[in-house]
Amino acid sequence: MRESEYYSYFVGELPKGCQLCVKGAKLVLFTTGICPRDCFYCPLSPWRREDVIYANERPVKDELDILEEAKIQEALGAGVTGGDPLARLERTVRYIQLLKENFGENFHIHLYTTGALATREALEKLYDAGLDEIRFHPDIFSPNSKLFQKEIENIKNAKDFDWDFGGEVPVIPGGEERIRWYAEFLDNLGAKFLNLNELEFSETNLRALIDKGFKPVSDESSAIKGSLDLGLELLRWGEESTSLSYHLCTAKLKDAVQLRNRLKRMAKNVAKPYHEITEDGTLRFGIAEYEDLEELYSLLVEEASVPKEWLYINEKKKRIEMPEEVAIELADAVEGDVKFYIIEEYPTWDRIEVGRIPLP
Q1: Is the pTM higher than 0.70?
Q2: For strand 193-198 and strand 164-171, is the pairing parallel, antiparallel, or unpaired?
Q3: The three-state (H, E, C) secondary structure of 46-103, written as one string
Q4: Which domain holds residue 283?
Q5: Do the Cβ atoms of 235 and 247 come closer than 8 Å?
Q6: Per-residue pLDDT tens for 142-190?
Q7: No. of H helices and E strands in the chain?
Q8: Which has fewest Cβ within 10 Å: 14, 46, 88, 202?
Q9: Any stretches that span the bilayer, and where are they (predicted)?
Q10: How many CB atoms lie within 10 A of CB 269?
């Protein structure tokens, strides 16, 4: 077992999908929120638990949205997820074909599925479309359910195709016997890997996890106490007991590495001249807020002599954007009800604001 440079742990070789993901080079293609299961630990937001489509944070209205997002990210591949992407099989197959047609055969695509809908016919369509890697997440923690039995039977079909296949499940404290069972099942089937994810609290699974007695590692972390330690124990066991590769994906990897690297890839392609790209990949700039933006714009250009190319009227957010240094200077010079701030935003489609400093 080794520790990676990405705050994760692994045995053997990282799956190709993970190798690109940690670099922030994987487009997250969410093809539907529909899923045949209702796992108590599911972290999906309420608005994604419907038949919706997203490319990263961008709502997809047509196929061009997917291509545009992949180009902005300079993506080298895509992770197809949901819900269960097989709940909208034809849509998912089309999107895989679309990405391969536009970015080439080397554009690596992996997909997550419960296995409940992974019939031989469905897998054949995915394979023919160009899917490179498939990861199965059956409900191993409900072994007596009919749906689980169906999932396991369907997973057996994956060995008949020339792709990388394996499993991916959360590390739930107390669930070590079931995870070991699944690892042995995959190993006997000829699978390549088992990915283990450190369990985390989210807005939607918080109550269910607390009701089951789970606690966070600390007040500053969303990670579940005991999940990481169990994951490390399972990797040590797996290295000795199976021939699978393992990757223990930590909460820190997702927050401090994968997201940060993706933001950096995107920032350089969306940044305007007045944006400063920070070390974390966020966009930093100044803004001015005022009731009449046209009036303010004229004042800044004609009376404050600010070059027009330094100013951008953002009607949607009701503000004028500008370089940070300009905002600092204007905050000292402009009187009245104009308010100036230094802003930090993600370079994503939704432009989430992560920092706001008022200027005196």
Answers
A1: yes
A2: parallel
A3: HHHCCCCCEECCEECCCHHHHHHHHHHHCCCEEEEEECCHHHHHHHHHHHHHHHHHHH
A4: 271-358
A5: no
A6: 999 999 999 999 999 999 999 999 999 999 999 999 999 999 999 999 9
A7: 12, 17
A8: 46
A9: none
A10: 11
For residue 117, give the amino acid letter.
Answer: L
Q: Based on the fold, state whether residues 278 and 150 are members of the same structural domain.
A: no
Residue 242 neighbours by CB under 8 Å, 6+ apart: 183, 184, 187
Longest Cα–Cα distance in the chain: 76
Residues 6 or more apart whose Cβ sits within 8 Å of residue 234: 171, 176, 179, 180, 183, 196, 246, 248
Give the whole-angstrom CA distance, residue 83 versus residue 51.
9
For residue 355, give every residue at least 6 positions away whose Cβ sits within 8 Å of its Cβ, in sequence order, or none.
282, 284, 342, 343, 344
How do 339-345 and 283-289 pair as beta strands?
A: antiparallel
Q: State the pLDDT at residue 254.
A: 85
* Among candidate residues 220, 241, 266, the one where a domain is terminated: 266
**pLDDT tens by residue, 231-290:** 999 999 999 999 999 999 999 998 889 999 999 999 999 999 999 999 999 999 999 999
337 and 195 within one domain: no
260 and 321 share one domain: no
Q: How many CB atoms lie within 10 A of CB 229?
A: 12
Tokens representing 218?
Answer: 């600390």
